[in-house]
Amino acid sequence: ASRGSDELSGLAFLDCNTLLLCCAMGQLCLADIRQPQSLVEAVSVPSAPCSEQWCMGARHGAQGLELSSQPVARLSSRGLLTLTDLRKTSEFLALAKARVPSPGSCAEFLCVSWAPALEGYLAISGFDGTVHVYDTQSWDSSGREAEPIFVHKGHTFGGAGGSGDLPQVTVHTWHPQKPRTLLSAASDGSLHVWDWVQPCGNC
């Protein structure tokens, strides 16, 4: 990774030759597969405790779309969300704090993903048995707490099982064509395909 030994938490192709990597400490790096030694650190993260872990979500745009036209989202184990435009890495497009329980308690299943068929929407999971959906279009660089527009709580209704622990969402993903359909899995083996509805106040 950027310093040769950083743990990677995510990677994604931005086009057929450009690879984006996210280190567990939050740094983003760009690499060109035609030049294997040309790793470039794109942008670091806001000052944060060393123990904080990060993951990223990059939107896969349509064929022929400009390389960096979609912001990259990063999520920390404390619930901090950053949006970065790779064309201008000296500043953040937006900073927000997700409303999550027990921030920093576990980073094993952190997941952030962009909706492929809805502009500016993303989902996060990995803190508990829920998936939160956010509309980022009104976010700024203030870092204030963001209000989710929908919270999927279905995994928490299955019961605590034998261990007494509630299930934790391990991963989620968006349907590629259906704008408000997601798939999520949890530590109890449950798999949900679900839709969310835009709140009436925001219609």
TrEMBL record:
It comes from Oxylabes madagascariensis (white-throated Oxylabes). It comes from the Eukaryota. Gene3D superfamilies: YVTN repeat-like/Quinoprotein amine dehydrogenase. The gene is Wdr73_1. GO terms for biological process: cytoplasmic microtubule organization. This is WDR73 protein. InterPro entries: WD40/YVTN_repeat-like_dom_sf (IPR015943), WD40_repeat_dom_sf (IPR036322), WD40_rpt (IPR001680), Wdr73 (IPR042795). One of its GO terms (cellular component) is cytosol.
